Amino acid sequence: MALCYWKPLSLLLLLQCLLSVSYASLGDADPNYRACVGECEVSGCVGQLCFPQCNSSSNTGPWYTQEPLYLQWQKWGCQGDCRYHCMVNREKERETLGQPPLKYHGKWPFKRLLGIQEPASVAFSVLNLAMHFHGWISFFIALYYKLPLREDKTAYYEYVGLWHIYGFLSMNSWFWSAVFHTRDVDITERLDYSSAIAVIGFSLIVSILRTFDVRVEAARVMVSAPVLAFVTTHILYINFYKLDYGWNMIVCVAMGVAQLLLWARWAAVSRHPSNWKLWMVVIASGLAMLLEIYDFPPYEGYFDAHSIWHAATIPLTVLWWSFIRDDAEFRTSSLLKKSKTKAK
Q1: Residue 107, by phi and psi: left (phi above 0), alpha (psi -120 to 50) or beta?
Q2: Dmax of the chain from CA atoms?
Q3: 257 falls within a domain
Q4: Helices (H) and strands (E) in the chain, counts
Q5: Model confidence, pTM
Q6: Is residue 252 within 8 Å of 197, Cβ to Cβ?
Q7: Is there a single domain that holds both residue 87 and residue 160?
Q8: According to its UniProt entry, what is the function of this protein (predicted)?
Q9: How far apart are the first and last CA of the chain?
């Protein structure tokens, strides 16, 4: 997922939005690397290793004569293979000289696995998606099968619809995070950024409505409309006008910090029985930021700070959905007590 998640886990996606603001790095500025890529794109070879796709025609023939998609996915284009293998060779040379790894086109020198560009980040993104799915399903079961329902079979909890939308947007965001880290191309990058911004914007709406206990539908629309309009405009801007990394970072940071302050304020003043879970997520999310601030090369070519950050969000996701379930139980219990009091 690109640096942007305070939900409070949107603070985690906030980190996603801080993804490098430029593809220019010391590695791809290295004359030896650039010469290697230039020669490879002409000859189709890096040393003894040659790539047929550098000299092949774009006409691949009928679909039934082509390789299965799962095999095509593992193969990269001429430029991608040239860059990767030139990077590998250059890093081996630097290692023999005792020099540290460099970033190439904004990324550390990762080792591919089955054609996957960043295997660890992909695996942890998939696990995050699975934890959100599990959390949403457990929330659904608790709401409709464990807690009392109204006479019309609807839930007492006033924020149920908001959390359902939040769950869908979160799963969508982690899905595109996994796709983006599998293959970093323009379309996967834009989908990753767009889905991250969508969940951050909606999380801001949820944080405002829940922490200020906004229950009147008209008031909810008045609060949500400006945020939705801004987020939609921003997504259209980065997709169809200019993918401005600096501006995108400012937008994500602003929305993320706003949510952080809202949840922290509410945790401090409310008497919610599960406040400790909220505090744990808030504090742990802040500490997780250090993994993005203290960036380091991937260990054994797989585990860098960003992938470890992805791993850190997994238990926080479990804890956050646990808090959401507790909140549903707390509000349902409170509303039932009030209805019984009025009945007397």
Answers
A1: beta
A2: 87
A3: yes
A4: 12, 2
A5: 0.83
A6: yes
A7: no
A8: Involved in the lipid remodeling steps of GPI-anchor maturation.
A9: 53
Residue with tokens 């834009």: 190
Same domain, 284 and 155: yes
For residue 277, the model assigns a pLDDT of 93
Measure the CA–CA gap between 13 and 174, rounded to whole angstroms: 10
Looking at the structure, tell me whether residues 79 and 121 fall in a common domain: no
Please give the residue range of the domain that contains residue 38.
31-96
Q: Of 309, 306, 287, 286, whose CA–CA distance to 297 is shortest?
A: 306
pLDDT in tens, 288-311: 777 766 777 778 778 888 888 889
**Does residue 252 lie within any of the structural domains?**
yes
Mean pLDDT over each residue of the chain, to the nearest integer: 83
As for how many domains the chain has, the answer is 2
Q: State whether 194 and 288 are in the same domain.
A: yes
Query: Which CATH number covers residue 330?
Result: 1.20.1070
**Residue 70 C-beta-side C-alpha neighbours within 13 Å:** 0
286 near 313, Cβ under 8 Å? no
Residues 63-91, mean pLDDT to the nearest whole number = 67
Query: What is the C-alpha separation between 328 and 339, in angstroms, rounded?
Result: 16
- How many Cβ atoms from other residues are within 10 Å of residue 63's Cβ? 6
173 and 85 assigned to the same domain:
no
Q: Which two tokens stand for residue 340?
A: 């019984």
Whether 180 contacts 192, CB under 8 Å: yes
pLDDT higher than 80, residue 74: no
